[in-house]
Automatic annotation (TrEMBL):
PANTHER family for the chain: EXODEOXYRIBONUCLEASE III
Obligatory cofactor(s): Mg(2+); Mn(2+)
The protein's name: Exodeoxyribonuclease III
Lineage: Bacteria, Pseudomonadati, Pseudomonadota, Alphaproteobacteria, Hyphomicrobiales
Signal sequence region: none
């Protein structure tokens, strides 16, 4: 099974790019983030014509997450992250596909920091960690895929000091990610490529894509009962160079049929 995560940065504006990538890569499951579309505006018909069924939690202007499955309907299990009934931001959706529970995650950016947006980011990541523990304890195979808005280590950002004040690289953000992963979850891309600078995001500003000045923000975490099935993974970075591209590229993993 090939599972991918892709912050599409406006699903309707980037629809041609998304459909082209789906046709070329042929993933079994895709987690999308930053739809920037209300529920009624999600391009379900175009995605269905490409061979994918979908569940989604949209939001006008910002946020929004979805899960696409090739040739099958994802079975929706949750459309919000538990722990804060007042949180109305569409940042989490969860569905069962092919015997695996899959979550599409769009964690808060947290800028500017310090401040309320950064506090919200850290609280959201702690809620995610608690929910991840609850999912793991069910015994179900789980993939937590998405844009975590954290570059976990210095290996996950190009050599620079220009991001030192950014919420994506703060010690508190990195500590929250480490607590989430803990000893139980496998950071799939880093496990496969332990010493490589692999990026999934290149900001539009300051010529960062041509300079390969990227960050690894898009992660796929595997529950312990899936770790042995991990056989391949990477980032389809060429999508970032296309006309009208998102500032993210899809990250993907391949799981064997049995571990």
């Amino acid at each position: 099974m090939l599972i991918a995560t892709y912050n599409v940065n406006n699903v309707n504006r980037r629809l041609a790019n998304l459909l082209g990538w789906l046709a070329a890569r042929k993933p079994d499951v895709v987690c999308l983030q930053e739809l920037k579309a209300a529920d009624a505006d999600f391009p379900a018909a175009a995605i269905r014509s490409a061979g994918y069924e979908a569940v989604w939690a949209g939001q006008r202007t910002w946020n929004g997450v979805a899960i696409l499955a090739h040739g099958a309907m994802p079975v929706l299990t949750r459309a919000e992250l538990p722990g804060d009934p007042d949180d109305r931001q569409s940042r989490y959706i969860e569905a069962a596909v092919g015997g695996i529970l899959i979550a599409s995650i769009y964690a808060p950016n947290g800028n500017p920091q310090p401040g309320p947006k950064f506090d919200y980011k850290l609280a959201w990541l702690e809620r995610l960690a608690r929910h991840a523990t609850a999912l793991r304890r069910t015994g179900a195979p789980v993939v937590l895929a998405g844009d975590y808005n954290v570059a976990p280590t210095e290996l996950d950002i190009y050599p620079t000091r220009s991001w030192d004040d950014d919420a994506l690289v703060q010690p508190e953000s990195r500590a929250a990610f480490r607590r989430l992963v803990g000893r139980s979850w496998t950071d799939a891309i880093r496990t496969l490529h332990p010493d490589e600078r692999i990026y999934s995001f290149w900001d539009y500003k300051r010529n960062r894509w041509p300079r390969d000045a990227g960050l690894r923000l898009d992660h796929l975490l595997l529950s312990p009962n899936l770790a042995g099935r991990l056989v391949a993974g990477g980032v389809d970075r060429e999508t970032r160079g296309l006309d009208g591209a998102s500032d993210h590229a899809p990250a993907w993993i391949e799981l064997s049929d049995s571990g």
